[in-house]
Structures are given as C-alpha cells and as structure tokens.
C-alpha cells in the first residue's frame, strides 16, 4: 500500500511518519483534543497515531500529515477518516498547537477533499463537529460545508456538516474563493519559516 | 504525485503456520476475538469499533517501529488462529513478544510455534540481544507458553488499561 503525496502552494501532504509523532502527541494529550475524544494518555495517543497509519492500509485512504513545503516540519493532519462505527466517510483535520492562524487547515483540507473526490470517487463527505468547536465550525463553513440535520451523528453531541459534492465544487465560486484565500495566506505568511 | 515507499512486512513460515501482514480481511476475526473472554488478558473485551482500531494500530506499529505483530494462519487451511509478534507501543518497558490466540485454536502449540518464529526474527534479522513477554498473572496458558520458550519470570510491571503484568525474560540469542 502506498500513501500518495499531495502538494499545495505552501504545503505537502504526506504519509504519517515516526518523526511526526511529537506534534500528534502534543495535540492529543492536551486540552486541544477535547473536541476529538481527548485528552488522551501518551499510550492512547500513540495507539491512535498508529491506527491513523493502519487506516490507510485498511481503506486505501486516510489522514495525511501536513508539512510545510520549505521547512518540511509537520503542522497537523488532514484527510479522510472512516473507522468502524462512523456512519459515513468523514473529512477531518487537526492542527498542532502553535501552528494555527495561518490558513493551513483550509489549504490542506481543500486539497485532501479534491483527492478523495477525484481519486477515491467519493460523491459526498461529512465532517462531524462539536458545536463548541468554533474554529472548526468556521473552517467547515469556509469549505462550503453546511449542517445536515438528517444525517446520523457519531455520538449525538456532534453536528454533521455535509460538504459540497464534486460536481458542486467543480469550477464553483467556492473553489475560486478558497484558491484566493490560499494565495493571500501565501503572500502573508510565505512558504517558509519555522512552525512553532 | 509521488508515492511513499510502503514498508515491506516479511512473511514467516513454520512447520504448520504462516505469519503474514495484517490487513482489511482481518477485521472480522479481530472483532470476534475482542468480543470473546479470551481477550480479557490483553485489554479486551472491546466492541467492534475498538477491535477495528486495534487492528489499525497493529498495522501502524510496523511503520512506527519497523517491526510489529503478524496474523498467524494455519498453513494447510489458511484459517487465522491468532496474532503474534513484536510489540512496543509508547510507554512499554521494552520490546516484547506477544501472542493472542483466537477462540478454538488453543491446545495445539500454535502460540509457542509462532512466538518462537518471531523470536528468531527478532534475534536473527533485527539483531536484538534480549526480549521480554508481559503476561497477566491469571493467564496460565500464556505462562505455559513462556515456560516452553524458556522464558523466566523476573518481576512485575503495571500498565494503564492492563493492570499488573508478569515480566518474563527470554533466553538470550544462542542460549535458547
């Protein structure tokens, strides 16, 4: 099984590797993970990181590590997530502590969604969000996702956001708008620089 | 688009068993094992969701450590009888040989046969100089596997989710 590498203006989405684990652990053992089933112990966090990798082998898709194109440093994860028990296939993202505020999640998730639609043939996707997770709710909205009150939830505390399908996304103002946001972010933050 | 090089997981063969890479086809067997009382010594029982994640973790362990556990198939019928191999998640005292035998396959020496093959792999291919096994003190079947492999109890450790475990030290390479 090979995990593909995707490139965007500022980012590389690549296979999760051992060297990326510290950022994942920092995220999942902290209060930041309160909307993602955490905080977890270090053991639980490592087991979940290993499962992120195994997910690729089981389904042929999964969560990429997001890395800065220039420095190569990882700053989060984005991609497809469909563990057993999930009502349907999810597009998910997370940003390591300290890497927020640069539009990374938008740029990475937009690219991941395009790959899942084009290469995996998905015709729809959802994101499960805690309504208290304001930043992620805002990001879902910027990605064009909207609440789908009829869709089954994972744990009844979450809201299901449904993404625009491939046809709705293709050549839409939404896609153009995201591309514009990404190039603005590139101008503001550049491609390099340390992430911390 | 460039491709990440997939980690090759070697297939090991013994007289009666084939040790192979875990994959999607093992979802059902893992769910059945973690639903059974047999899993109570190794973190179970787990619901099918938890068993699925455990399978995914077993696969990812190979990428993160460069070694891991194999699914064990009977060579003649291709039935999967367990999961055996080298296990070392975050916080483990040191790498261990672990074995989970599925319901209905006990009493044939399969766990010992597979565990010996993975110990040979650890000592031979990986060049390890020592290895342990962690066993729940109530798990007399696994204690017997340790004895058959020549591993000796040297103490106890306590692990979250698993409680107190006996530490068995295997004979060093050449001494087995």
TrEMBL record, chain A:
Transmembrane segments: none annotated. The keyword Transferase applies. GO terms for molecular function: acyltransferase activity, transferring groups other than amino-acyl groups. Residues 10-146 form the N-acetyltransferase domain. Keywords: Transferase. InterPro entries: Acyl_CoA_acyltransferase, GNAT_dom, N-acetyltransferase. It comes from the Bacteria. The keyword Transferase applies. Pfam families: Acetyltransf_3. SUPFAM superfamilies: Acyl-CoA N-acyltransferases (Nat). PANTHER family: GNAT FAMILY, PUTATIVE (AFU_ORTHOLOGUE AFUA_3G00765)-RELATED-RELATED, N-ACETYLTRANSFERASE DOMAIN-CONTAINING PROTEIN. This is RimJ/RimL family protein N-acetyltransferase. It comes from Rhodovulum imhoffii.
UniProtKB/TrEMBL annotation, chain B:
GO terms for molecular function: acyltransferase activity, transferring groups other than amino-acyl groups. Keywords: Transferase. InterPro entries: Acyl_CoA_acyltransferase, GNAT_dom, N-acetyltransferase. The keyword Transferase applies. Residues 16-151 form the N-acetyltransferase domain. This is RimJ/RimL family protein N-acetyltransferase.
């Amino acid at each position: 099984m090979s995990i593909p590498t995707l490139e965007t203006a500022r980012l590389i989405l690549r296979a999760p590797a051992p060297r990326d684990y510290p950022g994942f652990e920092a995220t999942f053992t902290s209060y930041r993970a309160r909307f993602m089933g955490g905080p977890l112990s270090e053991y639980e966090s490592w087991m979940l990181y290993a499962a992120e990798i195994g997910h690729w082998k089981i389904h042929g898709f999964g969560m990429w590590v997001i890395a800065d194109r220039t420095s190569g440093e990882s700053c989060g994860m984005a991609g497809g997530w469909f563990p057993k028990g999930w009502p349907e296939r999810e597009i998910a993202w997370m940003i390591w502590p300290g890497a927020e505020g640069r539009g990374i999640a938008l740029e990475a998730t937009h690219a991941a969604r395009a790959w899942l639609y084009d290469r995996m043939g998905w015709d729809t996707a959802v994101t499960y969000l805690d309504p208290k997770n304001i930043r992620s709710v805002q990001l879902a909205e910027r990605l064009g996702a909207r609440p789908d009150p009829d869709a089954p939830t994972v744990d009844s505390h979450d809201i299901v956001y449904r993404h625009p399908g491939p046809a709705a996304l293709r050549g839409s103002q939404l896609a153009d708008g995201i591309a514009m946001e990404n190039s603005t972010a590139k101008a503001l933050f550049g491609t390099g620089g340390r992430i911390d | 688009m460039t491709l990440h090089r997939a980690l090759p997981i070697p297939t090991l063969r013994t007289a009666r068993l084939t040790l192979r890479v875990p994959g999607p086809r093992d979802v059902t067997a893992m769910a059945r094992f973690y639903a059974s009382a047999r899993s109570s010594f190794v973190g179970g029982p787990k619901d099918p969701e938890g068993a699925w994640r455990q399978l995914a973790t077993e696969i990812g362990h190979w990428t993160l450590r460069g070694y891991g556990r194999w699914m064990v198939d009977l060579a003649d019928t291709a039935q999967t009888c367990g999961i055996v191999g080298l296990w070392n998640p975050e916080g483990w005292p040191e790498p261990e040989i672990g074995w989970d035998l599925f319901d209905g396959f006990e009493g044939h020496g399969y766990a010992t046969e597979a565990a010996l093959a993975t110990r040979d792999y650890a000592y031979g291919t990986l060049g390890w100089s020592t290895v342990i096994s962690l066993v729940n003190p109530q798990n007399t079947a696994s204690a017997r596997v340790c004895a058959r492999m020549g591993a000796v109890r040297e103490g106890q450790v306590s692990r979250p989710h698993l409680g107190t475990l006996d530490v068995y030290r295997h004979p060093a390479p050449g001494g087995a």
